[in-house]
Q: What sequence folds into this?
């Protein structure tokens, strides 16, 4: 089962390395990882997506909590949360497919952020299913390059990780 884990950490060098080492040392793959400062520049928030059964994820979260620079760990999978990912897609924009690309962009509420004679660069945010659907329609038209931010997530409602 896929789990989305949110981790607050002290913003210091080596923290990311220790956390990723904990996952790899236990044979877990990180499917997605996003790290950035919070409103407090001394604290960063990591959103980690991994796959494992509940007991293995519980073991990982306990190990994460033991790390010195970790402030708090929450497995968001156990609660309601909002998640998003950002993608940038560079498309081959030959004359014959330009209109079709623009139709798909409009349907998915994406944006064209760069245009050249041969390419369009598209930006879109959404959850995993929206991104998957967007990419499925674009693939036959000629994706030249794809960059993904990794998932970010936050609990719904008044619940907070702080």
A:
């Amino acid at each position: 089962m896929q789990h989305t884990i949110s981790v607050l950490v002290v913003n210091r060098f080596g923290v990311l390395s220790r956390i990723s080492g904990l996952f790899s040392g236990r044979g877990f793959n990180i499917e997605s990882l996003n790290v950035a400062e919070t409103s407090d520049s001394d604290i960063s928030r990591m959103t980690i997506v991994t796959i494992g059964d509940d007991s293995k994820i519980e073991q990982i979260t306990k190990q994460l909590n033991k790390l010195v620079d970790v402030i708090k760990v929450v497995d968001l999978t156990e609660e309601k949360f909002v998640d998003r990912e950002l993608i940038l897609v560079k498309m081959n924009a030959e004359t014959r497919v330009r209109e079709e690309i623009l139709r798909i962009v409009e349907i998915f509420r994406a944006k064209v952020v760069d245009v050249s004679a041969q390419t369009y660069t598209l930006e879109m945010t959404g959850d995993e299913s929206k991104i998957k659907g967007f990419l499925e329609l674009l693939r036959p038209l000629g994706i030249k390059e794809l960059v993904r931010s990794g998932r970010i997530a936050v609990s719904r409602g008044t619940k907070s990780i702080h």
